[in-house]
Amino acid sequence: MTGLLDGKTAVITGAAQGIGLAIAKRFAAEGATVALGDLNAEAVADAAAEIGADVAFGLRCDVTVADDIAALLAAAVDRFGTLDVVVNNAGITRDSTMRKMTGAQFDQVIDVHLKGTWLGMKLAADIMGAHDGGSIVNMSSISGKVGNFGQTNYAAAKAGIVAMSKAAAKEVAAKGIRINAIQPGLIRTAMTEAMPTEAWDSKLAEIPMRRAGEPDEIAKVALFLASDLSSYMTGTVLEVTGGRYM
């Protein structure tokens, strides 16, 4: 039985845990070889070992540093011979009300999400454009559509990813490179489960499906965008929210 990503190589950032790791596992299960990048070198090495040393490796990667992303992409090509899919997933939160938010808190979130995604697209497109094209998937958030209290930095970055994805998609489409974005809603990860119960319950009440999503439910949408199932889609944004804010 063939997988949707047989013979393809994917690079996923922020892949040591949560949504990024779920994507890496799903891609590998569908036949891809995967390169996992994460700021936590030990955790990403463990994550890759869990998937299997024959099809995965992990490398420390700070997505705000161009040389780190370039090294991760080059390592994927050196190890597996190709680069077909890149998922720009790495992210952080530095939540605070606008009045109390520091400039450093704003800059950190913008750098990781917006600059990190931009660097990932830019460097991946250079490689993909010289070969047979590829698919780039950028991780936005429903916060980039509606904004969340205490997240002026995060909402701005995630909204920026949408606009940036569309602009970049227009630039590279002729080279056979597709760029799409995902906007997850409330997904059950270590980060969201650390929320106070009151905040979790409040968000849950806004979801028509009356449950949080699971990381693999985002991974399956990433798989769709990475594979030929979405071959005529670029510049699109898919909301995966259980109906929240529709």
UniProtKB/TrEMBL annotation:
Protein known as: 3-oxoacyl-ACP reductase FabG
Gene3D superfamilies tied to this protein: NAD(P)-binding Rossmann-like Domain
Cross-referenced InterPro entries: KR_dom, NAD(P)-bd_dom_sf, Sc_DH/Rdtase_CS, SDR_fam
Membership in a protein family: Belongs to the short-chain dehydrogenases/reductases (SDR) family.
PANTHER family listed in its UniProt record: 3-OXOACYL-[ACYL-CARRIER-PROTEIN] REDUCTASE, CHLOROPLASTIC, SHORT-CHAIN DEHYDROGENASES/REDUCTASES FAMILY MEMBER
Pfam families linked: adh_short_C2
Domain named Ketoreductase: residues: 8-185
